[in-house]
Please model this.
Amino acid sequence: MKKIFTTLVIVLSFYSLSYAQQYSQQVGQTEFGIGVGYSSAYIVESNSAYGSSSDFVSGFNVGVSADHYFSDRWSLKVKVLYDQKGWGNGYISTPDYQYQDVNFKLNYITVPVMANWHFGRTRNWYLNFGPYVGFLTSAKESTDNIDIKNSINSVDGGIALGIGIKIPISDKAKFFIEYDGQGGVVNVFKQSDGTYQNLRESFNIGIDFK
Model:
């Protein structure tokens, strides 16, 4: 029994040491990633007593990321995304045009800067959160493809958060699956009776490289 216990202690010690070495090797390293995702977006009127919101509109995002490790549990992750947002079955009125019951597509270059907390026995799970800023590249009404960019604020900003898991596929690469969301705090429109904010959630996949 004593020999079995001693053997178990030795095995667990080597096991713990191997993970400690793995974690220590991550500190100071930066992982670079590329990913793509399916997104669902809408807008909400924050000043409404009922918190009224629009219908969803589907889109996608694609981008690159850099994730720098400060410890085995914490890193700073920066993304640059081509990000589709907008709203469905909506209405907009300007001096030049008026549309209702149509979809609107807003395309942004979005830059989230997030604290990334890694958890689980192998630290392959992660939870991230932080601010983002988005720069409008185009805005169109989808029925007739009419440009409405002049009515939309050129900058969006708010809070981004997400949760995901990384699955090692080689010594240098990990496949990731994540769910993330963005909540805007900036009015979507340049002029409006209320304050309307972007909300977007997406399911993403991609690969991170050491």
Notes: Helices lie at 2-26. The mean pLDDT is 85. DSSP finds one helix and nine strands in the chain.
